Each structure stands twice: as C-alpha cells, then as structure tokens.
Amino acid sequence: MNTNPAIVRKPLAPGQLAVYVAILKRWSLYGVPPTVRDLMRDCGIASPNGVVNHLKALRRKGWLTEHRPDTARDIIPCDLIDSVRENAAVLLDLLGMAPSRARVAA
After folding, report:
1. CA 15/CA 56 separation, integer angstroms
2. Tens of pLDDT, residues 46-96
3. CA atoms within 13 A on the CB side of 52
4. Which listed site, 13, 38, 49, 93, has its alpha carbon 20 to 30 Å from 72?
5. CA 32 to chain CA centroid, nearest Å
6. Topology of domain 14-77, per CATH?
7. If DSSP codes are grouped into helix, strand and coil, which group holds residue 69?
8. Where are the domains of the chain?
9. Which of 22, 29, 7 is nearest to 75 (CA)?
10. pLDDT of 104 over the 60 cut
11. Which helix (H) or strand (E) holds 55?
12. Tens of pLDDT, residues 30-55
C-alpha cells in the first residue's frame, strides 16, 4: 500500500484521471467503493476489462491500494486512507487516547 506522503505518485492519463474522479465521487456519495460496473457507467467505458486495466494502472502508479483478492469491493484511494489516518489521529488526540502521548500522573 502506498500511503506514504513522501512517495510521489506518478501522473495520470486522462482516462485514468476520469476513473479516479469517479471513484472519489462514488465514495463521497455512498461511502462505499464503486463496482467495476458502476465505473463503466460513470465513465462511459464499454467493457469491464477497460475499467480493470485503468484500476491496475492506478494501483501501479500509487493512487489506489493494492488489490485484495478476498474482497469484492477493494477500490480504495490512497488519499482516502491518508485522510482517515489523519482524522483518526486527531480524534484520538482529542479524546486523550493518542498512542504517542505520554501519560503523566498529575
């Protein structure tokens, strides 16, 4: 999984960018990953193989997490994971449960 901000992600071709934007829109609207068929409809791609090839390129270029064969919907943008980690860290800090915080008895 490529979620390290120090790693520069490779630029996307126009078709790959369209698929990535469609993935982000689906996530923001429904809160779950899109299916290959959803992406076919949203991007006007005629075959599932076309979408799968774009997904492979997005993973190879560091924009999506690695494929997990045991999961039906595993189209997860690395940006989303980074955002969840940051928000979780802030929330844990606000709750006083941050793992890096040294607890000192008062």
Report:
1. 13
2. 999 999 999 999 999 999 987 777 777 778 888 777 666 666 666 566 666
3. 4
4. 13
5. 11
6. Arc Repressor Mutant, subunit A (1.10.10)
7. coil
8. 14-77
9. 22
10. no
11. helix 48-60
12. 888 899 999 999 999 999 999 999 99
